[in-house]
Amino acid sequence: MRMSFGLTFRTAKGRWMANLNRQSSGGSIGLFVPPSPPLDPEKVKELQRFITLSRRLLVMTGAGVSTESGIPDYRSEKVGLYARTNRKPIQHGDFVRSAPVRQRYWARNFVGWPWFSSHQPNPAHWALSNWERLGKLYWLVTQNVDALHTKAGSRRLTELHGCMHRVLCLDCGEQTPRTALQERFEVLNPTWSAEAHGLAPDGDVFLTDEQVQSFQVPCCSRCGGPLKPDVVFFGGTVNPDKVDFVHKRVKEADSLLVVGSSLQVYSGYRFILTAWENKLPIAILNIGPTRSDDLACLKLDSPCGELLPLIDPH
Q: Where is each Deacetylase sirtuin-type domain found (predicted)?
């Protein structure tokens, strides 16, 4: 699959404008979805039986549920960030310790934010929201930070790694909407412009050193402290209270379905171990192998948005 990106920002009468060009021989919808075999009718029937027998179903989603919305993941073969570039995601310790690192991060995030925040739920998000509405889904745990489950109407939801749509002060803990921070960026950088090359799953883009150096970053309006997206960066830890909460939901469930996650990150994998230790049946829907394939009674390699709408939640 051939891909190219161009994201150009410029000012026009005080307002920021963006132009994102994406070209792919596979089309924009499938741009970040890895290849998969055709749907196996027998596997679909097996998943239907799994869902039908579930009374307190817990679903855990990962980046693979959002690739069909146009948001790339990190690990997918050929189309994930690691496959397309040698760039690595920002580390928690680097962000907290270094003002220049924060400046670079926020400059890139500022450029990518209109693109990232504009994405909408795909059929997989809507299907899971419908399962909740009909009483089939007991709890939803997502490792994603894109808010697409919330946009689809999911309420029985834990965002394990936080949400990019919120910003947190590292000193006083004050939370503010990311949209409000975007407005502050625009005020502080009225003539700043940049062309971005490449795109990360969290809306981060790639800028040169020269582009970053002139970018002004606001501080907390309450205490003057540094600001950080309300998400768990690589090398960071999930809030222990949130971990305990999810462990309780897993123990209350009678089955667990993994959707769009390779489970390589321990913060999500540990809940699969809890489910297995509590003898819950585990089904996995993910294109490619996962860390828990040997623990699952059912494994399907299909696009989430293609398969989930076929399942009757009644």
A: 37-314
Residue 138 annotated as binding? no
What is the CATH code of the structural domain delimited by 41-310? 3.40.50.1220
Read off the pLDDT of residues 114-173 as tens digits, 9 standing for 90 and up. Answer: 989 999 999 999 999 999 999 999 999 999 999 999 999 999 999 999 999 999 999 999
45 CB neighbour count, 10 Å cutoff: 10
pTM of the model: 0.86
pLDDT tens digit sequence for 73-96: 765 555 445 445 556 778 999 999
161 in catalytic set? yes
3-state secondary structure 189-240: CCCCCEEECCECCCCCECCCHHHHHCCCCCCCCCCCCCEEEEECCECCCCCH
Q: What distance in Å separates the CA atoms of residue 213 and residue 195, rounded to the nearest whole number?
A: 14
Q: What is the layout of strands, in order, in the sheet containing 227-231?
A: 175-177, 162-169, 227-231
